Amino acid sequence: MENRSLALRHVSEALQLDSNGFHQAAFAKYLQSLHILTTYLNDLFIALGFSKMLEKNREVNQVLCMIHECSDRVSVIINNRESSTIQTKVQPSFAGSSSLTETSMIENTTSGKFSVFEKLQDENMKLLKNYQRRLEITNDKCIKTNLKLEFERRLAENAILAKKKYDIVSFVILAEL
């Protein structure tokens, strides 16, 4: 039980670090949490054996849900890291392009809306449909909670990415004026 509470502390610290933008430190905390949780499951298996461990189904499922959530967060950090390195490679190319191309990237001339935010809206609708579909499939409260947290996290990440893209393009346009 001590390892489990330690892992919970690490997970809460990792979430706080992650939400404040300290992704490298959050990454390390998530990995520590994964290690502690898997060690806890292994110790539980060694101490109780397989059949008695299965009797603690609820506790095992909760630990597995935490492991799943930590591994998802690690994947998101890695994927965001890859997309941010791609953005930094693409960003300098904006400086040499014409302002017409830059404005067409953010503003749709027919609707007057910003395409970055249109894409965000489309992505969020896809996420909502996927969330609702997955929610209907399962009856487990732990999985439903994880789905809700994952959905909310992805919505927030999409909003942040759209804002960053908009800021990058509008900064380049203002710099040329």
From TrEMBL:
Protein's recorded name: Uncharacterized protein
